[in-house]
Amino acid sequence: MPTYLIIIAAVALIAVAALCFYLIVFIKSVGASSAGLINHITGLITHVTKTLDVMTGEIATIRMQLNEALDHVDAISGQAEAALTQVNASVEQVNVQLKDVGEIIDNVKQISGDATRISEDATEVIHGARTVVLSLMDLEQNIQRKVSSPIVEITTIFSAIGRGIRVFRKKVGSDPAPIRQIPARTYVEQTYAEQ
């Protein structure tokens, strides 16, 4: 049973109890005159009947108004349910998007980690290539030092032999052409001395 009907029934019972109390007090005060008492009771009953009719009409009006209010509450609760459904759907979409953002962040972390490893590997390769280039330069200079000395000696020996042969020809007298002097430093010596 709805709450508003219980409240209305309680108010009606309190009104009837007050009426009965009033009748008891009135009957005691009027006393022995039965004809006057009957007239009073008839008037009182008429008055109570009118009052009950008015109360019944007011209760009916209140009941209609409460029914209309309940209908409005039902409509509002239906709208509230629809709004809550939309809010729940929106929250679900936000949760899905937050999950997607979390996955994107994880992917970015993984890619940045991969990029860091690649840059570290590239740095190691560059340092390795630098070491190889420096080793090759040292090897080239070492070979140059080791080879230049014997070449200079061989060139000096050939130059001395050529000079000796010219001096010998000159002494023997078979070569009428003037002897050309070969410089002591050869081309190879000059090349390596400039470096």
Structural class: mainly alpha
The tally of beta strands, per DSSP, is 0
Largest sheet: none
- Beta-strand share of residues: under 5%
What this model shows, in words?
This protein is mainly alpha-helical and 195 residues long. The chain folds into two domains: 3-93; 146-194. The chain has three helices and no strands.
How is the secondary structure organized here?
Blueprint: H1 3-30, H2 34-172, H3 187-194
Give the tags.
single chain; mainly alpha; 2 domains; 0% strand
Short description:
This protein has 195 residues and is mainly α.
